[in-house]
Design a protein that fits this description.
- The complex is a heterodimer of chains A (535) and B (250).
- Chain A has 535 residues and is mainly alpha-helical.
- Chain A is 67% helix and 0% strand.
- Chain A has a single domain (23-503), classed as Cytochrome C Oxidase, Chain A.
- In chain A, helix 14 (379-409) packs antiparallel against helix 15 (415-442).
- Chain B has six helices and no strands.
- Chain B starts with 47 loop residues before the first helix and ends in a 10-residue tail after the last helix.
- Chain B has a single domain, classed as Up-down Bundle (Four Helix Bundle (Hemerythrin (Met), subunit A)), CATH 1.20.120.
- The longest helix of chain B has 36 residues, at 48-83.
- In chain B, helix 1 crosses helix 2, helix 1 (48-83) runs antiparallel to helix 5 (172-206) and helix 5 runs antiparallel to helix 6.
- With 250 residues, chain B is an all-alpha fold.
- Classes of the chains: A mainly alpha (535), B mainly alpha (250).
- Chains A and B meet through helix 6, helix 7 and helix 8 of A and helix 1 and helix 5 of B.
C-alpha cells in the first residue's frame, strides 16, 4: 500500500527541490552523499600513507609530500567525515521521527548547515588542488603560523566554516529534543540514540566555538602578523595547544557518542529485548560528554605541562572508562538471553563491540602518564585512536546505515553481502591496526615516511590489512548503491524492531506522520515471539 | 503494511487531538490543517507557544556558543595578563578611557531602546517599534564610528602589532595590542551583524508584522543585541581601566 503514497524521495522531483529542501530527511541524504565523497578522498590519502610505509626507505613520496598526505587524511576524515557522519546523516534523518515530530525545530538552519559544510569542503578541495597543507590536522603554532609555506590559511578557513555547520546541527538537535517531542514522549521514553545525540550536541555547541576562535587567532597571527602565540613576543605556543585540545578532545566524543547511540538501538533490536539499564546508558552519554571536557591535558603530558596538572588530567581521563564500561556491560547484558538474530546489522554491531573494547582499553594505557611518556607520538597512539574512530565510529555508522537503510531508501540490500562486508571490514581493520600497537610499543614514531628495516614486517601486515579494509568498504558501497536501483522494496518494519520510525512507511512521507503520534510506551518494549519479516 | 500489528503509540483514533494533512507529502502552508492557525505558525509546530519557546531556546543556545567563542579569547587574556601584568597596565594606558567610556554609555542606551522596541511590539505599537529600532541602529552606528577613530589613532601612534610597532615599548605590549584588536574587532563584527539584523527587523516592523500574538523575532534579536552589549561591558574594564589612569591615552 505504501507504493500509492508520496514518500519524501519523490514529492516533488527535481534538483532544485533537493538543493532548496527544508526536509530533514532530504538534508540527511545530501549529507550522506557528501560525506561518502569525502570518505573516499580521505581514504585515498590513507592509501598513499600506507603504500609509502610498505618499505623502510622513503622511496614512493618525498617527506614533504608524506607530510601533506597524513595532514590531508586527518583534516578530511575528522572534519569532513567523522564529525558530521552519524549526527548529520542518521541523526538528521531519525531525530525528528524518533521525537514524533514533522521536522527539526529550525529546518532552514538545517539546510544552512549543509551549505556551510559544502563551502568548507570546497575550500579544502581547493587546498588539495593548490598543493596541500603540511601542518598536521592540529595546526600547531609556531609551525602553522610562521614556518609552513603551504595553504594553511585556506585549510584553516575551511575547517572554521565546517565548524559552524557542526554547531548549527547540534543547536538544532538540542532545541528539537527539548521543545518538539510528541505528547507522551517523556525524556525517559526517548530512544537512547536521541540521548546520545543530545549529549553529542552539547559537546558540539560548547566545544566547537573554542576551536573556531583558536583558528581565528592562528589566522590572525599568520595573515595579519598579530603575535598571539609568537614566542618572540613572549607568546605561548602551549596556550594554543590548550585551546585546541579543549575542543579537539571533546571532538573525539562527537565522533564516538553517536556511534554508541546507534549501538544501543541495534543491540536492543537484534536481541529483541528491552535494553538493560536504560537510565544508566542514557546518563552515561551525558557523563561522557561532561568528563570529555575535563581531560584535554592528556594531550600535553610532554608539552611542558606541570606534573600536577598531568596527574589530575590522568586521573580524570581514566574516569571516562567508567561510563564507557557502563555502556559496554549494559549492551552485553542486553544480548544475554536475548533472541539474537544474525542479520547484517548484528555483524556490524558485534564488530563494533570488539573493536571499541580494544580501543577503549588501550586508552587507559595512554592515560597512565608514566607509560604515555614512552608511547606518546608513536604508532601505539595511532592504533588506539583508529580503533575508536574507525573501529568504533565507522563500524557503528555502517551498522546504523545497514539497519536504517530500508527506512531511508525504501530498498533492501543483499543480506549475505552485508555480512561478508562486515566480516571483511572487521578482519581488515584488525590486520591494519593491531600491528601498529606492536610498532608503537617498539618505538616507531608517527608522522615519518622512513623507518628502521626491522619494523618492515609489521608495516607490510598493516598495508595488507588496509587493502582488505578498503575492499570491505568498497563492497558495502557497491551493494548499497546497487540496492537503490535493483533492491527489493522494503516493508515498513523489516527487522521487527520497536520505535516510531518503524511504524511509518519506508521511505517515510514528507511530514513523517499522517497523524501526530501520541506515545504511551517506553522505548524497546519488546515482547517475546515477535514476527520477523526477513532474516 | 504501513503500521505493524503493535503500534507504539500511533493514534489512529479520530477523537485524538491531531493535525491532519489532506495528503501525506503535501506542501506545507497550503491548507490541510484541521483548524485555523496564525499565518506565522510554521508547519512543523503544534502552536504559537511551541514556536515561541523553540525560537527563544534556540537563541539562548546560540548565545551559549557565543559565550564559548569569546571565552577562548578571555582565556588567552587571563593567561597573558598573569604572565605580563606590567605590559598589560602599560598597554591599557595607551587606550582612550573617555572614548571607551562614551562607547559604553552609547551601548547601554542602545540596550534601553532595544528593550523599548520589544515592549512596543508586545503592546502592538508600530510607531514605537520603528522609532526605537531606528534609535538602536543609530546608537550602534555611533559606537562603530567612535571605534573607527580609536583604531585610526592606534595606527598613527604605531601601536598596531607587527613590523611597525613602536620599538621603544616592551615587546609583551604587542601581545596586549594583538588581543585588543582581536577582541574589539570580533566584538565590532558582532555589532555589524546586529545592525544588519535590526535593519531586517525594522523592515518587518514597518510592514506591521509584529503584534501581541507574534513578536518573537524582535525579542530574540533583542537577546542577541544585549549579549553583544554585555561582551563590551566586560571588554571595557578589562582593556581600558587597568591601573587607573585619567588621561586620554593615544
Amino acid at each position: 500500500m505504501q507504493e500509492a503514497r508520496h514518500s519524501y524521495l519523490d514529492a516533488p522531483y527535481g534538483i532544485a527541490s533537493w538543493l532548496l529542501t527544508k526536509d530533514h530527511k532530504r538534508i540527511a541524504m545530501l549529507y550522506l552523499i557528501s560525506i561518502t565523497i569525502f570518505f573516499g578522498i580521505g581514504g585515498l590519502f590513507a592509501a598513499g600513507v600506507r603504500l609509502e610505509l610498505m618499505t623502510p626507505e622513503g622511496d614512493l613520496v618525498s617527506s614533504d609530500m608524506y607530510n601533506k598526505l597524513f595532514t590531508l587524511h586527518g583534516v578530511v576524515m575528522i572534519f569532513f567525515f567523522l564529525i558530521p557522519s552519524i549526527p548529520a546523516t542518521l541523526g538528521n534523518f531519525l531525530i525528528p521521527i524518533m521525537c514524533g515530530t514533522k521536522d527539526l525545530a529550525f529546518p532552514r538552519i538545517n539546510l544552512l548547515s549543509w551549505y556551510l559544510y559544502v563551502a568548507g569542503a570546497l575550500l579544502t578541495l581547493g587546498v588539495v588542488a593548490g598543493g596541500g597543507v603540511d601542518t598536521g590536522w592540529t595546526f600547531y603554532t609556531p609551525y602553522s603560523s610562521q614556518s609552513s609555506n603551504t595553504n594553511v590559511t585556506l585549510a584553516a578557513v575551511g575547517v572554521f566554516i565546517a565548524g559552524f555547520s557542526s554547531i548549527l546541527t547540534g543547536f538544532n538537535f538540542i532545541v528539537t529534543v527539548h521543545r518538539m517531542r510528541a505528547p507522551g514522549l517523556t525524556w525517559f521514553r526517548l530512544p537512547l540514540f536521541v540521548w546520545a545525540q543530545y549529549a553529542t550536541s552539547l559537546v558540539m555547541i560548547l566545544g566547537t566555538p573554542v576551536v573556531a576562535i583558536t583558528i581565528v587567532l592562528v589566522m590572525a597571527e599568520r595573515a595579519l602578523h598579530l603575535g598571539i602565540f609568537d614566542p618572540k613576543l613572549g607568546g605561548d605556543p602551549v596556550l594554543m595547544q590548550h585551546l585546541f585540545w579543549f575542543y579537539s578532545h571533546p571532538a573525539v566524543y562527537i565522533m564516538i557518542l553517536p556511534g554508541m547511540g546507534v549501538v544501543s538501538e541495534l543491540v536492543a533490536a537484534v536481541s529483541r529485548k528491552q535494553i538493560f539499564g536504560y537510565s544508566f546508558v542514557a546518563f552515561s552519554s551525558l557523563a561522557i560528554a561532561i568528563l570529555g571536557f575535563l581531560v584535554w591535558g592528556h594531550h600535553l603530558f610532554v608539552s611542558s605541562q606541570s606534573i600536577y596538572a598531568g596527574l589530575v588530567f590522568s586521573i580524570i581521563t581514566m574516569l571516562v572508562a567508567v561510563p564507557s564500561a557502563v555502556k559496554t556491560f549494559n549492551w552485553a547484558a542486553t544480548m544475554y538471553k536475548g533472541s539474537i538474530t544474525w542479520e547484517s546489522p548484528t555483524y556490524w554491531v558485534i564488530g563494533f563491540m570488539g573493536l571499541f573494547l580494544i580501543g577503549g582499553l588501550t586508552g587507559l594505557f595512554l592515560a597512565a602518564m608514566g607509560l604515555d611518556i614512552h608511547l606518546t607520538d608513536t604508532y601505539f597512539v595511532v592504533a588506539h585512536f583508529h580503533y575508536i574512530m574507525v573501529g568504533g565510529a565507522i563500524m557503528a555508522f555502517l551498522g546504523g546505515l545497514h539497519f536504517w537503510w530500508p527506512k531511508m531508501t525504501g530498498r533492501m540490500y543483499n543480506e549475505s553481502l552485508g555480512k561478508v562486508a562486515a566480516i571483511l571490514v572487521f578482519v581488515g581493520f584488525n590486520l591494519t591496526f593491531f600491528p601498529q600497537f606492536v610498532l608503537g610499543y617498539l618505538g616507531m614514531p608517527r608522522r615519518y615516511h622512513a623507518y628502521p628495516a626491522e619494523f618492515q614486517v609489521w608495516n607490510v601486515m598493516s598495508t595488507l590489512g588496509a587493502t582488505v579494509l578498503g575492499a570491505g568498504y568498497m563492497l558495502a558501497f557497491s551493494y548499497l548503491v546497487y540496492s537503490l536501483f535493483k533492491g527489493a522494496l522494503a516493508p515498513a518494519n523489516p527487522w521487527g524492531a520497536k520505535g516510531l520510525e518503524w511504524e511509518i512507511p519506508s521511505p517515510p512521507p514528507t511530514f513523517n506522520f499522517d497523524e501526530d503520534p501520541i506515545v504511551t510506551e517506553p522505548a524497546y518494549n519488546y515482547k517475546p515471539g515477535r514476527e520477523v519479516h526477513v532474516g | 503494511m504501513a503500521n505493524p500489528a503493535t503500534p507504539l503509540g500511533s493514534s489512529p483514533g479520530a477523537n485524538e487531538p491531531t493535525v491532519h494533512h489532506a495528503v501525506a507529502g503535501h506542501a506545507h502552508g497550503a491548507g490541510g490543517h484541521a483548524q485555523a492557525h496564525h499565518p506565522k505558525l510554521q508547519h512543523h509546530f503544534y502552536s504559537m507557544e511551541q514556536q515561541l519557546e523553540a525560537s527563544t531556546l534556540g537563541m539562548w543556545v546560540f548565545l551559549v556558543t557565543e559565550v564559548m567563542f569569546f571565552g577562548g579569547l578571555f582565556m588567552a587574556y587571563i593567561v597573558y595578563r598573569t604572565m605580563y601584568p606590567d605590559a598589560w597596565v602599560g598597554g591599557s594606558h595607551h587606550l582612550n578611557v573617555y572614548l571607551g567610556g562614551l562607547n559604553t554609555a552609547v551601548l547601554i542606551c542602545s540596550s534601553l531602546t532595544m528593550v523599548l522596541a520589544v515592549r512596543a511590539a508586545q503592546v502592538g505599537s508600530r510607531n514605537g517599534q520603528i522609532v526605537n529600532l531606528i534609535l538602536t541602529i543609530l546608537l550602534g552606528t555611533v559606537f562603530l564610528v567612535v571605534k573607527y577613530f580609536e583604531y585610526a589613532s592606534k595606527f598613527e601612534h604605531h601601536l598596531v602589532p607587527g613590523p611597525h610597532f613602536d620599538p621603544t615599548l616592551p615587546t609583551a605590549q604587542q601581545l596586549f595590542f594583538s588581543l585588543y584588536f582581536v577582541m574589539t574587532g570580533i566584538h565590532a563584527a558582532h555589532m555589524v551583524v546586529g545592525i544588519v539584523l535590526m535593519a531586517i527587523i525594522l523592515v518587518m516592523a514597518w510592514k506591521g508584522q509584529f503584534g501581541p500574538d507574534y513578536y518573537n523575532p524582535v525579542e530574540i534579536s533583542g537577546l542577541y543585541w544585549h549579549f553583544v552589549d554585555i561582551v563590551w561591558i566586560f571588554l571595557f574594564p578589562l582593556l581600558y581601566l587597568l591601573g587607573f589612569h585619567g588621561g586620554p591615552g593615544a
